[in-house]
Write a structure and sequence with these properties.
The chain is mostly helical and 78 residues long. The protein has helices at 20-30, 36-53, 58-71, 73-77.
């Protein structure tokens, strides 16, 4: 199964995959207002959707959230 949470067609079968990842990417692509507040809101939605998917996996959801906050700004602004 392809892990849709990772860019550039990387696959990490040993990491959990979330359905929320594709929704997060879609929100980034379709954002009409591109500022820090909008990006933070989209990222928070992503985090809470991951928690809703897997309540027991809070640590992985938090790691994914922080990775998005640290590195995904390039995908949002450019």
């Amino acid at each position: 199964m392809k892990n849709s949470c990772w860019p550039w067609r990387l696959t990490f079968d040993w990491l959990p995959s979330y359905k929320a990842c594709s929704g997060h990417d879609d929100r980034y692509k379709n954002a009409k207002i591109r500022n820090a507040k909008t990006r933070a809101k989209i990222d928070r939605i992503f985090y809470y959707q991951m928690l809703a998917e897997r309540k027991e996996d809070k640590i992985t959801a938090k790691i994914y959230y922080y990775l998005v906050r640290l590195f995904w700004w390039t995908r949002f602004y450019f």
